[in-house]
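If you are new to this repository, start here. Below is one unmodified record pulled from the training split, so you can see the exact layout before writing a loader.
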Amino acid sequence: MKYLDKSIGMYMNYINRKVLRFLSLNLKKYNITTEQWSVLLHLVEEDGINQKQLAKKVDKDQATLVRILDILEQKELIVRKKSPDDRRSFLVHSTLKGKQLKNEVYPFIESIFERITNGIPDEQLNLFIDTLNKMEKNILTEEAKN
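And here is the target side for that same chain:
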């Protein structure tokens, strides 16, 4: 296939920006950004994780993650505690307020994605997810070569 960058790469980037913009607009009423939401969701699901592991899971560099955690901590959605095993390391925990926000926002996000995927059969969505997973695997394979 010729012009893959223009047809696939550019279009994926375009749709990604549109989805993020749409989510950001809708998350404003919860006073949380898409990046903050991603981190909070991971923390509620895996409470007490260290910052380095969390950065890897949410695909953020350490400096960016620290800024996001600072904001989430100011909003009282998370707390950082020194690790009992390593005094240089912090474990990040969601607070009750953070868990409540996750429980409130998660169904809302699900409803947004139901609207975004409206009219697309499950078979197509499953194929799309499978294709994205294969693309990610190919990227990871290529990154490992470098």
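Two things worth knowing about this chain: The chain has one domain: 4-120. The first strand starts at residue 49 and ends at 50.
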